[in-house]
Structure formats: C-alpha cells, structure tokens
Amino acid sequence: MTVLAGRYEITKKLDEGGFGITFLARDTMQPSQPLCVVKKLSHNQTNPEFIKRITEKFKQEANILEKLGIHTQIPQLLAYFQQHSNFYIVQEFIEGQNIEKEILGNKRNEVYVRNLLQEVLKVLSFVHQQGVIHLDIKPANLMRSRKDGRIFLIDFGAVKELMLNTQGKFASSARTSLPIGTPGYMPTEQSLGQPRFASDVYAVGMTAIAALSGVQPHELEEDPHTGEVIWSNQAQVSKDLAEVITKMVRRHHSLRYTSAEDALQALNSLRPFNTLCFNTTTNIIKAAKTTSADTSSVKGIATKTTKFTKPTNAEAFKNTINTNNSLT
C-alpha cells in the first residue's frame, strides 16, 4: 500500500489523463482516517531553472486553492507537498455524485434549472470575486453532496494549468498558452487561450441548456449567420429564463454577462418560484374547467404544484425533481 508524505494512504486511482493522476486516499494521521483526494502532478524535467519556476508556480496555485477552499461549497485544500520530484495536492473528498446522470438524456423542468443556476452562480460569484476563473465548469465538475444535496464546484482549471506547466509549458495566471476546458462548454475566447469571467458564465449557461433539453452541447445546432447556439426549440422554458440563458451563451464574450454576479442578478430579477407555480396552477385549473374535469382531481393537481415552490433542504429538493417530472 502506497503512503505519501508518511500520511496519505492511497486506496484507489480515480482518474488519469494528460493533466496527471487523481487518487482516493485516507488520512492516517486523523483519528477517523477520513477519505481525501490526492492529485499527483508529474514531470520529467531536470533543468534547475525549470524546477525552481514550477515550484514557485505550484505554491501560487496552492495558495489560490486554499483561498477558494474557505467557501463551504468548494473542496478545502488540506495539504500540498513535493515527494520524489513529484508535486501533490490534497483536497477534501466530497461524497456524492456529479450531476451528469441527473441531466444528460433527461429533460429537467424550469424549477430544477433555476435552483441549479442559483446555487452554481452563487458559488461562482465567490470564485470570481477572488479574481479566479474556473476554466472547466460542466456537469461532471458539479458534485452533489450525498449528505445534504448541496452542489460543490470541483476540479478547478488552475490545477490543470499547473499540470500543463509541469510539462514545460508556462502560462500567465490570466491567460493560458494552451486551452483548458471541455469542448461544448468552452467558448471561443477560451479555446483561443484567452479566458475571462464571461467564459465561466458561458459554461454555466450551457450546463443549464443541457439540463433543460437533455441534449449535450456538441449536439446543438448553430445559427449559420450568427454562430449563436440554437437551443430553445428543444426545451420547455419561460421566455424570461430563456432570455437570461441565451445571454449567458452568446458567441462573443462582450454580449454575455461579464461575471457570475451579473448573471445571478439577472436571474434574481425574474419572477419568483411561487409566482411561476401560481400561474402553472391557474392554467391547469382553466384547462380542467374547459374539459369539465372532476373538481377533486383539479384540487389534487393544484396541491402538487404548491409542494415544489420553495425546497428548503435536500429531501425537499428531491421532491422538487420528482414532482416536477410528473408535470412535464
């Protein structure tokens, strides 16, 4: 059994790619030996100047992760160290699963997507306030905690940038020499190595579209004249929310919200959930009266709609998803 820094006992490999290797480990120095995530950044360089620069860069990125980790919905940085010329980052393990299975291949309703946008944009606003761009927001990097249902923002691009740097390709903190991100969720300026806060806004918007449509970004068509994504024809969504999401995913960054905070303000300006639910209930009742439906069944439907107005905990959130799916 491999033990790193005399403390972190590797239990299994979670992922391996061009950016390094990620392991699940146990912290044997803690009484309960809690699980943690260990990311290994390897390099094969021998140039002393390179090693000095990458060591400095490693410390800078660790400082960023430590600063971000004070947020309750971002994994906490537990440690960083060097061993046998390799660099390691240790972070809090979030037990749960990412939201890929929740949304891909399934059309989620507007209440689900509003909740998702609210939660993700609030966390991302904190990230942007620290002067940091995530660089790789997508369903796979949005982890829903099994404990309380909250969404955690994981796998920051800063670590991937550092991993690129260990291969001898240095980049500034504001601009990357090689694009970091995932096709479909990564806008044009980011693919050109010039990301900005609006690039993260684009990725969140594409995640919302995937949730509403059940379609992955690369499967969506583009307007042949403007290059804008065509998506609203594949989703049931109110005009107001569609306008907010469309602005989030405009092709040119200057036409998007400039930051997560701007997008969140636009989202908060929309009608609240209870108004949305009231209108839905009213329409159902009108339709039922038109078809002379039994009054008791109408009351039953109205009762259902009021149950998902304002979920307050993890169980209520699950009920929101289930109840809404029965209505769409």
Task: Describe, in plain words, how this protein is organized in 3D.
The protein is α+β, with helices and mostly antiparallel strands and 328 residues long. 42% of the residues lie in helices and 17% in strands. It contains eleven helices and eleven strands. Strands 1-2-3-4-6-5 form a six-stranded antiparallel beta sheet, covered by helices on one side. A three-stranded antiparallel beta sheet has the order 7-8-9. A two-stranded antiparallel sheet has the order 10-11. A hairpin with a 2-residue loop joins strand 5 (77-83) and strand 6 (86-92). Helix 1 (48-68) packs antiparallel against helix 4 (157-165), helix 3 (110-129) packs antiparallel against helix 6 (197-213) and helix 9 (273-290) packs antiparallel against helix 10. The longest helix has 21 residues, at 48-68. The chain is globular and about 55 Å long. Mean pLDDT is 81; it is low at 167-176, 277-313 and 319-328.
Comma- or semicolon-separated keywords:
alpha+beta, 11 helices, three-stranded antiparallel β-sheet, 42% helix, 11 strands, 328 residues, disordered C terminus, six-stranded antiparallel β-sheet
